[in-house]
């Protein structure tokens, strides 16, 4: 590595000395760098340390030092994260791809041992537990038993990976949610390598909510699995120097408002502002009023407000949290000394940074809120939820009737055999997800609501499926220490597992009678969950209205049993004394919550929880581990298979071709999320994936979730674009993964049509609207698109991760010009599409906006080529990131 700016220096901390790359020394040469935002200073240090005159050149460092806050991003830099974080849904296909790369390397005459992570890779198994059993003392044991039965093959494969690859650690199932484990245990804040160089802890993760760790002052964000694999193998993450929006916090939260209410408010504000592809940085006098857990809650939902990251600086609260969570005294001293030495420590004397734009929120204006019924950015004040549900009911009711095959006239409502089931009934109340279960203030508040409700003689309604999925075992520790866990259990909020559960669709089945009541009467029922995502069809296939809420409100709605409740007038029920009990009667004060925090949460709880974190339980330890550096693929497996990405691959890439004679596979509207595209949730037995599994001897009861089968391409490609709520304009009035095979007009599944097109050698395109690919960082949304034969997507705008993933899988993203759209151009999707001049267009990337002319039938229009960087051009020319990296490693000495 070079040291052109002479910034290599020594930092003494206690008895130890560390090599650092001094930002102070650099700022003497470039004074403007002193006013860079915190996040860009972290990137600057990264470039100084990684300068090699290849991926990082002096001009890149100067460009960042002279950052123009207002300019549109156009300078590419290479960011090298310190580590990679994964969860099992996204992690299994990553390890599958690495195993496949070893095989491909062998077949090309290279050394398979070159395929090995070059940076620490940490995988937390947290996405596979499902809420089959809920509301009983046996919930945890039963769900764990089923989890291991369903996922034994996947878990065995991951245990093989831990032994076969260097730098690869696996945190076993039922430990906690990846992002909470990251914050409580894995995050270093300041990293030290084997050579004794200290530098900021940075990461990329294969989950959107990797951003949660930004609350600790650790810079990281979600990427697709394919990008993560490249990072593991030593490739830098190429990016444009971003714009940075400063978000000023003033004041203090009022009594009754929670961190969840705050983050829903922030999410709404930032979505409205428009921060996709930008960094958001929080500052201001309100910062010291927020606990570290509150900051984690806000940072977690950066994907929901659209930002690449939402970061807080390192300060005294960071050091306090590191101490609380059991980090060593040596690490605490290093973090504080390093941050202060580098000008990365925030206090009252920190000079103001320069931002692209600024926003301001007075914390005292935050009110109790939910978000829904289908998007996390659609905040609704608690007092307005009844009205909100009523406003959305007609549209939701029509969709329910269509799905049930009922006439579209007249209201359909029915008394349940369980009592009061009707439109608006809450059938799922879940305390779940990394956003809120990381935060003691809201978890303890939920316990106090349950405690007060018990004292009043109230009970959750019998038709509500209740669940508690803590983000880590520490939560159970402090709820037990405080005596609040038994109070929650009395209200049927029993621990169901330590994982993502309801927030990712692992909500499990509703009772048969409830399910029958909903479907036979086309009821629009609701879920209330403390999650971060509520996109349609995500939480449960039979639940059409989904509201995000704080954990104490989840308990309150379970007591009420309905979302169409007027909290100012309606009671939760009648207490044991015969008096009506209202929400205010069971709501905790800030002091009540803080008193529990002060007494029940100890450093010892964290140390005990993480002392033997990699050992796992008896189920994990009992798994037999395959041996060998190359995986022995099992031909009959329906969970793990050698993917086809390297079939027929040569040492040199083929020449880029134009797209000729293409047909449209689907015409999609606005806000098509990766939940719509990527296989997720339950596998229906009459779906292409279900039929495939049945043909391979798998019974429907053993189908498991799509997410659990991400290591098998034959299952996953059949589930791509198969979401039950997908609306393809080629088949108007129909929901689901259906299209028309245009040469004959025949209606069929998207997968079946894709196979017919591919057999005929016909390339495919997707037409889309605004925010195409928003949502989770699911690499299968891009992998599946590729395997279905789609060569290009043409949309009005893209979410950052999915656009990048498309390029990484060899699919070209194009963007309509600002006033153009499918509708304005009069496109039907029935046109034959021609895209010429692609090779020449790729040569212009990096010189400004590049437009390509597209011919659709008798219409012609220009569209922006969204291959954004020269590095992405290389990925596309090689057919994707993985073939590119494989060829680079093959040539490496």
From TrEMBL:
Residues in Aconitase/3-isopropylmalate dehydratase large subunit alpha/beta/alpha domain copies: 67-561
Keywords: 4Fe-4S, Iron, Iron-sulfur, Lyase, Metal-binding
Coiled-coil region list: none
InterPro entries in alphabetical order: AcnA_IRP_Swivel (IPR044137), Acnase/IPM_dHydase_lsu_aba_1/3 (IPR015931), Acoase/IPM_deHydtase_lsu_aba (IPR001030), Aconitase/3IPM_dehydase_swvl (IPR015928), Aconitase/IRP2 (IPR006249), Aconitase_4Fe-4S_BS (IPR018136), Aconitase_4Fe-4S_dom (IPR036008), AconitaseA/IPMdHydase_ssu_swvl (IPR000573)
Catalytic activity: citrate = D-threo-isocitrate
Pathway annotation: Carbohydrate metabolism; tricarboxylic acid cycle; isocitrate from oxaloacetate: step 2/2
Cross-referenced Pfam families: Aconitase, Aconitase_C
EC number: 4.2.1.3
Enzyme class name: lyase
Transmembrane parts of this sequence: none
Domain of life: Bacteria
Function: Catalyzes the isomerization of citrate to isocitrate via cis-aconitate.
PANTHER family the record matches: ACONITASE/IRON-RESPONSIVE ELEMENT FAMILY MEMBER
Family: Belongs to the aconitase/IPM isomerase family.
Stored NCBIfam families: aconitase_1 (TIGR01341), PRK09277.1 (NF006757), PRK12881.1 (NF009520)
Stated name of the protein: Aconitate hydratase
Species name: Limnoglobus roseus
């Amino acid at each position: 590595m070079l040291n052109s700016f002479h910034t290599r220096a020594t930092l003494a901390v206690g008895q130890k000395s560390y090599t650092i790359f001094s930002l102070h020394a650099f700022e003497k040469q470039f004074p403007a760098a002193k006013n860079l935002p915190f996040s860009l200073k972290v990137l600057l240090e990264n470039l100084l340390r990684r300068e090699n005159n290849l991926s990082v050149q002096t001009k890149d460092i100067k460009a960042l030092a002279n950052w123009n806050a207002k300019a549109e991003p156009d300078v590419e830099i290479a960011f090298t994260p310190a580590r990679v974080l994964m969860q099992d849904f996204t992690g299994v296909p990553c390890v599958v791809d690495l195993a496949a790369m070893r095989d491909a390397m062998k077949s090309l005459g290279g050394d398979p041992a070159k395929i090995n992570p070059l940076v620490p890779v940490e995988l937390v198994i947290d996405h596979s537990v499902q809420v089959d059993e809920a509301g009983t003392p046996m919930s945890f044991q039963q769900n764990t038993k089923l989890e291991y039965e369903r996922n034994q093959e996947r878990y065995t494969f991951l245990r093989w990976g831990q032994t076969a690859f260097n730098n690869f650690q696996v945190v076993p199932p039922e430990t906690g949610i990846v992002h909470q484990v990251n914050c409580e245990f894995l995050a270093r804040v300041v990293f030290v390598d084997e050579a004794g160089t200290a530098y900021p802890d940075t990461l990329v993760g294969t989950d959107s909510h990797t951003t949660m760790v930004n609350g600790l002052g650790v810079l990281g964000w979600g990427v697709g699995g394919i990008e993560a694999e490249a990072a593991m193998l030593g490739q830098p993450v190429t990016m444009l120097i971003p714009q940075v929006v400063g978000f000023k916090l003033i004041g203090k939260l009022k009594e009754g408002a929670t961190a969840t209410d705050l983050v829903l408010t922030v999410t709404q504000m930032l979505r409205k502002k428009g921060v996709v592809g930008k960094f958001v940085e929080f500052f201001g006098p309100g910062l010291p009023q927020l606990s570290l857990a509150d900051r984690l809650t806000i940072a977690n939902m950066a994907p929901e407000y659209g930002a690449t990251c939402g970061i807080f600086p390192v300060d005294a609260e960071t050091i306090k949290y590191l101490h609380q969570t059991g980090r060593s005294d040596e690490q605490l001293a290093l973090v504080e000394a390093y941050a202060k030495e580098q000008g990365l420590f925030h206090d009252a004397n920190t000079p103001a940074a320069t931002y692209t734009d600024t926003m301001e929120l007075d914390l005292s204006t935050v009110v109790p809120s939910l978000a829904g019924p289908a998007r996390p950015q659609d905040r609704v004040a608690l007092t307005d939820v009844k009205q909100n549900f009523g406003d959305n009911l007609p549209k939701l009711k029509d969709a329910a009737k269509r799905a049930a095959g009922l006439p579209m006239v007249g209201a359909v409502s029915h008394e349940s055999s369980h009592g009061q089931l009707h439109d608006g009934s809450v059938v799922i109340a879940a305390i779940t997800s990394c956003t809120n279960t990381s935060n003691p203030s809201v978890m303890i508040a939920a316990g106090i609501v349950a405690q007060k409700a018990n004292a009043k003689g109230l009970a959750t309604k019998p038709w509500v499926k209740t669940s508690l999925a803590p983000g880590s075992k520490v939560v159970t520790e402090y709820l037990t220490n405080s005596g609040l866990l038994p109070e929650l259990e009395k209200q049927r909020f029993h621990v169901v597992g330590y994982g993502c559960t309801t927030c990712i669709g692992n909500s499990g089945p509703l009772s048969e009678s409830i399910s029958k009541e909903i479907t036979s009467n086309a009821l629009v029922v609701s879920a209330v969950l403390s999650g971060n995502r509520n996109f349609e069809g995500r939480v449960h296939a039979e639940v059409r209205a989904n509201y995000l809420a704080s954990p104490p409100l989840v308990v309150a709605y379970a007591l009420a049993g309905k979302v169409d409740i007027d909290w100012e007038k309606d009671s939760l029920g009648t207490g044991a004394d015969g008096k009506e009990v209202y929400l205010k009667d069971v709501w905790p004060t800030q002091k009540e919550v803080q008193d529990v925090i002060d007494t029940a949460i100890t450093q010892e709880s964290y140390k005990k929880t993480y002392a033997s974190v990699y050992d796992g339980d008896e189920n994990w330890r009992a798994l037999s581990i395959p041996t060998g550096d190359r995986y022995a693929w099992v031909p009959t497996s329906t969970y793990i298979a050698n993917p086809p990405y390297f079939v027929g691959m040569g040492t040199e890439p083929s020449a880029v071709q134009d797209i000729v004679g293409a047909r449209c596979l689907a015409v999609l509207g606005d806000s098509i999320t990766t939940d719509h595209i990527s296989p997720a949730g339950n596998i229906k037995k009459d779906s292409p994936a279900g039929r495939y599994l049945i043909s391979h001897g798998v019974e429907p009861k053993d189908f498991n979730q799509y997410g659990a089968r991400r290591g098998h391409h034959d299952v996953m490609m059949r589930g791509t674009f198969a979401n039950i709520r997908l609306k393809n304009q080629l088949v108007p009035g129909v929901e689901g993964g259906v299209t028309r095979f245009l040469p004959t007009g025949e209606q069929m599944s998207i997968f079946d049509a894709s196979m017919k097109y591919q057999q005929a050698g016909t390339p495919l395109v997707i037409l889309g609207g605004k925010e195409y690919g928003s949502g989770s960082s699911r690499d299968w949304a891009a992998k599946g698109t590729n395997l279905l034969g789609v060569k290009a997507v043409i949309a009005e705008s893209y979410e950052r991760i999915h656009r990048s993933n498309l390029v990484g899988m060899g699919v070209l993203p194009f963007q309509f010009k600002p006033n153009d759209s499918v509708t304005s151009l009069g496109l039907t999707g029935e046109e034959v599409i021609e895209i010429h001049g692609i090779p020449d267009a790729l040569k212009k990337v990096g010189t400004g906006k590049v437009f390509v002319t597209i011919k659709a039938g008798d219409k012609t229009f220009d569209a922006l080529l969204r291959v954004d960087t020269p590095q992405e051009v290389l990925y596309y020319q090689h057919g994707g990131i993985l073939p590119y990296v494989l060829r680079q490693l093959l040539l490496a000495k």
